[in-house]
Amino acid sequence: MIENQDEILRVRHCPKLEDGTLVLAFSGWMDGGDVSTGTVQRLVELLGADPIAEIDPEPFYIYNFPGSMEVSALFRPHIQIEDGLMTTVDMPTNTFYCHEPAGLVLFLGKEPNLRWRTFGECVFRIVRETGIRRILFVGSFGGAVPHTRDPRLYVTCSDAKLLPEMEKYGVRRSGYD
């Protein structure tokens, strides 16, 4: 069952884009070296993109994972303590930013542990309401590649008509099971 999105997706402002593009980056498995989130964070900063919506993290993450302290700590919110006082609590965030002149919506978030369908519906609601026509996901993973080589870029498309466009940019077709 998909939950009430109005309680989970908090929309501050929903711009109408003519031919918008959504660029997504998630921390976690496909964020090797923080390249994915770092790329989108840099775009947010360079463009001065404004936050337009957030997905509430509460229904989507496991905060108490059984196991050793080292494993459990990976799932818990991070708390900073100074001189015996808790100063900050760092909860997962899922934020949409927009730079209207470029027709860009940028998303920075954490890959959900739970309720993927509901999380996805929150993303697609922003897609529908802003006029997004193209969705790009920035993923990265570590590999034994020396820094002297150019990084390899791959693409997976849901529409075969997009493949020739991506190849113009030197992006190779991926093969992944």
TrEMBL record:
Question: Matching Pfam families, A to Z?
Answer: PAC2
Give the matching InterPro entries. Answer: Proteasome_assmbl_chaperone_2, PSMG2_sf
Q: Which Gene3D superfamilies match?
A: PAC-like subunit (3.40.50.10900)
- Tell me which stretches of the chain form a coiled coil: none
Which protein, by its recorded name, is this?
Answer: PAC2 family protein
* Species of origin: marine sediment metagenome
Q: What is the lineage of its organism?
A: unclassified sequences, metagenomes, ecological metagenomes
